[in-house]
Design a protein that fits this description.
Blueprint: H1 6-11, H2 20-29, E1 32-34, E2 40-42, H3 45-52, E3 57-58, H4 87-96, H5 107-110, H6 112-124, E4 131-133, H7 134-139, H8 141-151, H9 158-171, H10 181-203, H11 213-218, H12 229-242, H13 245-260, H14 262-270, H15 275-285, E5 292-296, E6 300-302, E7 305-307, E8 312-315, H16 317-320, H17 355-369, E9 376-378, E10 398-401
Helix pairs in contact: 6-8, 6-17, 9-10, 10-12, 13-17, 15-17
């Protein structure tokens, strides 16, 4: 097959259950491969890492050249995840303030007990069931409940922001260029509606703060450190989405991996101290984020290829995580893998904002689940996957639990 169709094949839903052979084909074709649509696809660890740290590789969609037909549609305000420094650094720093001072226990660490309690409540409601959907019954409600408490969002509004989140995430996917217009429009509308909803919630706490992040943002005493309304809207939307989307996939992919490898499941059951290392290995072996798309701000030379200015670059993080030039025996799941500097949350200045919370939630969730998985079997393997190729994970993960006689 032609290497210039790799991106189209990787994003084709038929390959969602197992894109890894295509990633191996990508690495074999070369570190950097031009695609038929003009984009460049990068699949090797060291080249991906280099580009993630290169300031000439932009996350800002406004960096794209205007189409020949004229100026593109106006881009609305963007979250700091889609901005470059110095504006990215300013907004990220302001958004981090409510989490607590750097290098000290902060708001997320303080929530460990709450996360454990929420996990226990969810599991207790499931233990007498003979069949469970790990996604709908556990992996989704856990991080949603946690991020709602962290931000101060009423849990009963979850159906509302789930619809918005789905539209925003669909717009953020890596897709063929001709398929972008409608998802982009729906994503912008959903982002605007969710932003207004969250700013309205924050306004209700102005002068009457409670112990949540929306209160902290709206009642920031230092005018120099205060977010504008637009910045607050974009930051709160980002927090709400980043606070649960990656975690749902991480937990679901983790359960699927362990049920497929009962020897490693038993290893973790016997040695729960391996859990933090096992979560890092899951982030390498079955990461929640498979790709990121960037734009080159200048001609960039990488691995003997020149990526022209203004070109889209797709960084296949999940391919880099399986690069045998970086990881020994990369297709093997090893919960005790040493030197595991994976790309599961990206790298560089845009390292995933929700990573610390996702790690804690995954450790607690899998630690609570593992003792109950020894009598579990997959109802369907492979399970149905989400449409999204960038945020890859099961849409449903049905398991059967054999109850004691």
């Amino acid at each position: 097959m032609n290497s210039d169709t790799l991106l189209a094949r990787i994003t084709d839903y038929v390959n969602r259950p197992n894109p890894y052979p295509l990633y191996a084909e990508l690495r074999e074709a070369g570190p950097v491969v031009r695609q038929a649509d003009g984009r460049y696809l990068v699949g090797t660890y060291h080249e991906i890492t280099t580009l993630l740290h290169d300031p000439r590789i932009s996350t800002d969609p406004r960096s794209r050249p205007a189409p020949p037909s004229g100026p593109s549609e106006e881009v609305p305000p963007l979250p700091f995840l889609r901005l470059d420094d110095p504006e990215h650094h300013r907004l990220r720093t302001l958004a981090m303030r409510p989490f607590g001072p750097p290098h000290s226990p902060g708001r997320i660490d303080a929530m460990r007990g709450q996360i454990a309690d929420i996990t226990k409540e969810l599991l207790e409601a499931l233990l007498d069931r003979e069949q469970i959907d790990i996604v709908d019954d556990f992996a989704y409600p856990l991080p949603v409940t946690v991020i709602c408490r962290l931000l101060g969002v009423p849990r009963q509004d979850e159906p509302l922001f789930r619809q918005w989140s789905d539209a925003i995430v669909a717009a953020a996917d890596v897709r063929p260029e001709e398929d972008t217009t409608e998802p982009d429009r729906a994503g912008r509308q959903a982002r605007a509606e969710m932003g207004r909803y969250l700013v309205d919630l924050a306004d209700q706490r102005r002068g009457h703060p409670s112990d949540d992040m929306l209160s902290a943002f709206i009642n920031e005493p230092d005018p120099a450190m205060r977010l504008t309304r637009e910045e607050l809207a974009e930051t709160a939307v980002l927090l709400l989405i980043a606070g649960h989307e990656t975690t749902v996939n991480l937990i679901a992919n983790g359960v699927l991996t362990l049920l497929r490898q009962p020897d490693q499941l038993e290893r973790l059951r016997r040695d729960p101290d391996l859990l933090p290392s096992a979560v890092e290995e899951l982030l390498r072996y079955e990461p929640p984020v498979h790709m990121r798309e960037r734009i080159s701000l200048a001609d960039v030379d990488i691995a003997g290829t020149t990526i022209p200015k203004g070109t889209s670059v797709v960084l296949a993080l999940a391919s880099g995580n399986r690069d045998p030039k970086r990881f020994h025996d990369p297709d093997r799941f090893d919960p005790a893998r040493p030197d595991n500097q994976h790309l599961g949350f990206g790298s560089g200045i845009h390292l995933c904002y929700g990573a610390p919370l996702a790690r804690i939630e995954a450790q607690i969730a899998l630690g609570a689940l593992i003792p109950h998985l020894n009598t579990a079997t997959l109802v369907q393997d492979s399970p149905p996957y989400r449409q999204n190729a960038m945020l890859r994970g099961p849409r449903h993960l049905l398991i059967a639990i054999r109850q004691p006689a």
